[in-house]
Structure formats: C-alpha cells, structure tokens
User: What shape does this take?
Amino acid sequence: MDKITPEQRSKTMSRIRAKNTKPEMIVRRYLYANGFRFRVNVRTLPGTPDIVLKKYHTAIFINGCFWHGHVCQQGRMPKSNVEFWLNKITRNKERDEEVRDKLRTIGWRTMVVWECQLKPSVRQQTLEGIVYLLNEAFLDLHRRKCQPLQPFYVEPGEDSYMVAEDAPRYGKEDDR
Ligand SMILES: [Zn+2]
Assistant: This one.
C-alpha cells in the first residue's frame, strides 16, 4: 500500500524517534495494546498534551522529574547554579498548573505521569493505574450523560401520535 523508499522511511522514522521520548512510548504502547485509541502531541489543546484520549476526555502529560520539579530522587536540584535552576523549574511548575486549570475549565481531565513512575520496578503498577483512572473517567462521563436533564414530559395527545411511529430497534446498533 505504501510506496515509500527505505531511505524515505528511515528519514521519517528518525524524525519520529527524535520526538517520541522513551517514557512517552512506554505509556503509548501499553495503552494501544490494551485497546485505547488516542492522539499524541495535540497542539489544539492547552499545553500540547502528550496523549489525548477523546473518548475519555482525558489529557495525559508525561513529565520529566527534573524539568517539572517532581519531589523525588530524579527531581533533585543540581548543586551549582541553584538559583538559576530553581527559577526555571518554578516557572515550569507554574505553567503546568496553568495548563491543567485551562484544561479543567474546558471539561478535560488531566493526568500527570512522572518519569520515575515508569522505572521498571514500578512501571506495571503505574500503567495499570492509568488504565484504572481512564475507566473511572469513562464511567463518570457516561453517568453524567445518562442522567436526564429534566423529567420526561409528554405533550397532551402526543401518545396517540407515538403509536404510528416505527418500533424502536433495540441492541442492533452501537449508537456511540
Ligand atoms: Zn519523579
């Protein structure tokens, strides 16, 4: 189907590889293998989230511990130029918070996965945790959708009209 030369492909692949950092790929591969479908590096949403699952209204950020100021071993400040790094990382953290607020305002859930949470010893637990939260998000969205906004109301005389309508088909079509 695709008629690109090996050179073209390797060029494309190297471009992709440069962009797709390893922690991101771990999460993406796991989600994909578990049937989740998503978009990556979505520029149309605040903060260009790394992974966006539209069906779950969830944006995932995979954050490097150092750059985003995680309190953990990997997030520790270097011993020199402390003030410089402190300023830079504080600014990053503020921006992260702003982005999450913006997303929440427009009805998106946000999830932050720290790089240290993807270390081999804790990776499986983290990945399962992500799936758990996604399922929770889905249930929550579905619950809200199913709740009637107002009580059902039939206009007087309308019920005789209803009889003439086609019988509803149940369980035939996936309406989502
Ligand atoms: Zn960390």
About this structure: Confidence is low (pLDDT under 50) at residues 158-165, 172-176.
